[in-house]
Amino acid sequence: MQELLVDFITSLDGYGAAEGWPGFWGLQGPEYLAWLGEQPERDYTILMGANTYRLMSGFAAEAETLEADEAAAVDELARTPKFVFSSTLQPPLAWANTELVGGSAVEAVAALKRDGAGPMRTLGSLALCRSLLEAGLVDRFRVVVFPVITGSTGRDRIYDGYPDVALDMVASRTFDGRLQLLEYVPTVLTSPPGSESAS
Fold first, then answer.
1. In this structure, are residues 66 and 82 in contact, taking their beta carbons and an 8 Å threshold?
2. φ and ψ at 139, to 5 degrees?
3. pLDDT values of the chain reduced to their tens digit, one per residue, 199 residues
4. What CATH number did the domain enclosing 161 receive?
5. Which of 5, 91, 124, 152 is deepest in the core (most CB within 10 A)?
6. DSSP per position, 102-147
7. Does 199 fall in a domain?
8. pTM summary value
9. Which domain holds residue 67?
């Protein structure tokens, strides 16, 4: 069975981005950027939805306008195998090494976990991640928390609509004295912890 990792960056109050703020809320430091470049999950197949595909493939198309470290990251993503789950996009997709999958993402990912050639991780794609977690397909759930609260400008609330989930911590790390990596094994709950019907 292949591993599936859900991977988010978030503000302390649970937003994936904020209006007017730079990427990474402007707080990425050398330790965090080095870890991004060396993490073992770089060889994982990437799973994403249509909105994330449109955003990231747009960055790829404009790679020559990006700063060197951003362009290198986008170039590496272009080389990585990717599955896009969408009923609105049409083949062929322009971004290299990208396969379009229609129909049920849950069924397709369950098949990839069972029969696929390697481990997988998500990129953005909040609704996709939520549906995969609800289906019990997520093996690891990793969050890098940035030390900002973006209550006025935050967008892309990550956990809205999620089921209740118990998280068993398996790893943690601090980057650049301010960013906190938290890694968990998730268990979707059918009722609050401690009740007789909790899973």
1. no
2. -90, -35
3. 899 999 999 999 999 999 999 888 999 999 998 888 787 777 899 999 998 888 888 766 666 666 666 666 667 777 889 999 998 888 888 888 889 998 899 999 999 999 977 899 998 889 999 999 999 999 999 999 999 999 999 988 999 999 999 999 999 999 999 999 999 999 999 888 777 665 5
4. 3.40.430.10
5. 124
6. -S-HHHHHHHHHHH-SS-EEE-S-HHHHHHHHHTT--SEEEEEEES
7. no
8. 0.86
9. 4-188
